[in-house]
Amino acid sequence: MQAIATLGHALGFSLAAGVNLYATVAILGLASRFGWVDLPPSFAVFDSNVVITVALVLYVVEFVADKIPWVDSAWDAVHTLIRPVGGAFIAVVSLGEATPMTEGLMALLGGAVAAGAHLTKAGTRAVVNTSPEPVSNWVLSLGEDVFVVGLGILTLSYPVAAFVVAGVLVLLILLFLGVISRAAWRRLAPGRPQPVS
After folding, report:
1. Which runs of consecutive H residues, i.e. helices, occur in 35-134?
2. I need a surface site. Which of 77, 130, 135, 160 has the fewest CB within 10 A?
3. What is the CA radius of gyration of the chain?
């Protein structure tokens, strides 16, 4: 059961980091600082005034940038490498003491999960940004914020349940990533001839 809980921490936080890295790091830092739940000792790396402050400031910047059409896509483009690396780091930290091979495998898993979540978010935003009204963008952005906080709380409190939820979400991402990327490509390149089905 401990292995599943560790994977729950790794997958849950990596998935959340792929959507909003700074909110995820802030949640981890604040939970470690105030002892909201009993976290593995390795998560103490986030319990630093500097880490918590920087994460909260960058979260506020992302919160604003995420509500402005096309600025959100530019922000996502900048974070195409940052979020997966953050997800990989969080996944490795969730292990605590481990062999180098296990750390490498966990880094690959966390990075891949975060990358999948990031690409799904960025692709969905690219499609939504073609809409002339801003309301759908705001609703989607607020929904992402609620998702990250909710998944973070679930992962902190019930890592085994987070393992199940994250596993289902990863499968859904794999199923829909192709659909989202094709829709984004069609919306962003309307002059291109469409393939005949």
Report:
1. 49-65, 71-78, 82-95, 100-128
2. 135
3. 17
Identify the segments of the chain with pLDDT beneath 70: 178, 180-181, 183-184, 187-197
pTM: 0.85
Whether 20 maps to a domain, the answer reads yes
Tell me if 125 is assigned to some domain: yes
* 101 assigned to some structural domain: yes
The answer to whether residue 72 is domain-embedded is yes
Pick the closest to residue 76 from 151, 7, 126 (CA basis).
Answer: 126
Domain span holding position 163: 2-188
Find tokens 């690219």 and name the residue: 126
How many Å apart are CA 17 and CA 30, to the nearest integer?
15
Per-residue pLDDT reduced to its tens digit, 129-185 = 777 777 888 888 999 999 999 999 999 999 999 999 999 999 998 888 767 667 667
